[in-house]
Amino acid sequence: MRIVLLGPPGSGKGTQAALLKERLQVPHISTGDLLRAAVKAGTPLGLKAKAAMDAGELVSDELVLGLIEERLGQPDIADGYILDGFPRNLVQAEALDELLARLGQPVDKALELTVDEEQIVQRLAKRAAEEGRSDDTEAVVRNRLSVYHQQTAPVTGYYGERGLLVEVNGIGDIETINQRLVDALD
Ligand code: ADP
Fold first, then answer.
1. For an engineered disulfide with 39, which of 43, 46, 67, 108 has Cβ 3.0 to 4.6 Å away?
2. Ligand 1 center from residue 1 Cα (angstroms)
3. Could you give the CA distance from residue 121 to residue 127 in angstroms, rounded to a whole number?
């Protein structure tokens, strides 16, 4: 099963992707995780990405596309994948389609986790207190949400037009939401 997981920051994509990965036995590919690992390791890519991430802006398409192309070139995606945090704008969505067509691994479903904005701000404030992620401060969270509305929300329309989009209610306990996602895959 080849899945794109969509939804605003704080919608629980990462948590749900980790559960789906166990259930479906396919790799979970998060561009946010790949970028944070690059920043931590101090690679040239990480150094270039850090400022945008700290500001809640998108890292350049060029960097992210290079990263995803390398990751999707690995053999463990043969049985499927869960993409989380990518694609994040229409340019990335189109580039992804091209890449996946070349690999013969097109997307089967795009699952969108829907959560209202008030919940998101609360969840991210909680995560900031617990994990101390440097982009969870209030001003940066606000910017990430605004970037989401402007650049990422249109990606749901992209998959909708192709008949691949399913909206899933992202409010409830973790297991319930996970079951909704699994049901949406049938
Ligand atoms: P969240 O969904 O909570 O914003 P992520 O871990 O997906 O968290 O992303 C964190 C940051 O990493 C983003 O704000 C952005 O700077 C960068 N990033 C992640 N994925 C992409 C992407 N596909 N394109 C551009 N930037 C990205």
1. 46
2. 23
3. 10
Nearest CA to ligand 1 atom 4: 9
Peptide bond before residue 87 is cis, with ω within 30 degrees of 0: yes
> Which residues contact ligand 1 via a Cβ below 6 A?
9-10, 31-32, 35, 52-53, 56-59, 64, 85-86, 88, 92, 135, 144
Fold assignment, 2-29+79-184: Rossmann fold (3.40.50)
Residue with the two structure tokens 């699952």: 111
Mean pLDDT value across the chain: 95
Distance of CA 118 to the CA centre of its chain: 20
Tell me the per-residue pLDDT of 89-146, one tens digit each, with 9 for 90 and over: 999 999 999 999 999 999 999 999 999 988 888 888 888 889 888 888 888 888 999 9
The residue whose C-alpha atom lies closest to atom 23 belonging to ligand 1 is 86
The first and second tokens of residue 143, run together, are 């910017």
DSSP-assigned letters across all residues of 38-98: HHHHT-HHHHHHHHHHHHTPPPPHHHHHHHHHHHHTSGGGTT-EEEES---SHHHHHHHHH
